[in-house]
Every structure is written in C-alpha cells, then in structure tokens.
Amino acid sequence: MNPLNHVAIIMDGNGRWGLKYKNSRNEGHRAGLRTVEKIIRESIKNNIKFLTLFAFSTENWKRPKKEINFLFNLLENFLQNKIDDLYNQNIKLKILGKKNFPKKINKLLYLSEKKTFKNNRLQVNLALNYGSKSELINAFKSIKKNKDKITEKTLSKHLLTKNIPDPDILIRTGNTKRLSNFLLWQIAYTEIFFEKKLWPAFNEADYNKIITNYKKIKRNFGNI
C-alpha cells in the first residue's frame, strides 16, 4: 500500500458551478471555500501531512476586476475568521507565490504564516499568485546569483516548495484535463486524478475514493 504524505489540488469549477446553480460566479467561489474546509478536515482524518491548494494563479489577474476583488474579500474574511481555528487544530499555513496583494491582505497572510509556523499536524500550502514557469525562472536566477551548481537537488532547494515533499497525488476537479502551470517540476512522478465534478460539488467520499485508488497503484518511479 502506497504511503500518502502530500496531496495537491487544482480547485477548478467554482465559477461554472456558481453560474449553473446560483446564477453567480461569486457564489461558486463562496461554495468552493466550504469544500476547502471539508477537504482540510478529511486530510487530517487520513493523516496527510501536506495539502497544496491552487487558489489563484498568475494568469488569474486577467479575470474581471469585480471577480478578483470578490476573491480578495473572500480570502480576507477567511484569514480573519478562520486562522484561530487553524491554529487550534495544529494546522500550519504557508503561502506559495508572490505576496503582491493589497496591503491589508499581505499583512494578514504574513500574520497567519507567523501564527501557525510551529504547527505540524497538517501543512496547508496555499498557492496564491502562483505560476510554475515563473517559479522555475526565479529558481534559476537564484542559483546563478548564489553561484551554485545546477542539479536537481539544488534546483529543488530554490523552489517555493523547498522542504516540502513532492505531491503523491494531484487532483484536478472540473472535468478539465490540463495542469495549468501548477507545480510542473514537482509533479514529475505524481499520480494524477482528473475529476468530473466541479470543485463545490466535490465531497469527502470523492476524496476518499481517490485516496483508496491511489493506494492500490503500483508505483515504479522508472523501475520495473
């Protein structure tokens, strides 16, 4: 049975779900946040140590300003209202991406990371303003600046995921089969599961079904 240490998720389908069921993309984002809380709880039950959630990509800035502002407000409210709960549950929050958001959100992100830094039950990596190509370019620039030798090990040390094991599982909801510039280096040997359900409709049973299927897979890592 395969050990499961790290799950990464592309949470796709919020807007489509919102339009279909609530006539509002924003309501889809709100519902998607409730799914996030469910999956965090279920990850703890399954003794998963790392959960990486793709929340906002470098490409998402192309979306309508009103939708971006709503997402920022949703994030702000989540940090203000839920960070104490995360802390009390011994959950660590880490942000992957450039923190060039409004000052208030940047401050909340910093304080949230600081408050939960020593927690170790589950580490939730929130990919915000994240793009894998940009991450790799910055890593190579950092290697060059430090005059380090380019190796796989060195490159990994200069990524935003430094000290985080590569994902065992990548889940993408929303019936879309692409990686969307997410953890391209880190998922070289990750088992990928594409889920038809839109993110707000994804539930604990769906999550556990994927985990069960993953544990049955024969993982060779290039071997026979």
What is the topology?
Layout: E1 6-10, H1 14-22, H2 25-45, E2 50-57, H3 65-88, E3 91-96, H4 103-116, E4 122-130, H5 132-146, H6 152-157, E5 169-172, E6 191-194, H7 204-216
Parallel strand pairs: 1-2, 1-5, 2-4, 3-4, 5-6
Reading the helices and strands in chain order gives: EHHEHEHEHHEEH
Specify the CATH homologous superfamily.
Decaprenyl diphosphate synthase-like
Percentage of residues in DSSP E strands:
15-25%
CATH architecture: 3-Layer(aba) Sandwich
Total number of domains: 1
- Number of continuous helical runs: 7
Estimated structural class: alpha/beta
Assign an overall shape.
globular
Gyration radius (Cα, Å) is 17 Å
Report the top-level CATH class. Alpha Beta
Q: Give the low-pLDDT segments.
A: none
The oligomeric state is single chain
- Mean pLDDT, nearest integer? 95
Give, in spatial order, the strands making up the sheet with the most strands: 3-4-2-1-5-6
* Tally of strands: 6
Largest sheet: 6 strands, parallel
Percent helix, as a range, is 40-55%
End-to-end Cα distance: 17 Å
What name is given to the CATH topology? Answer: Undecaprenyl pyrophosphate synthetase
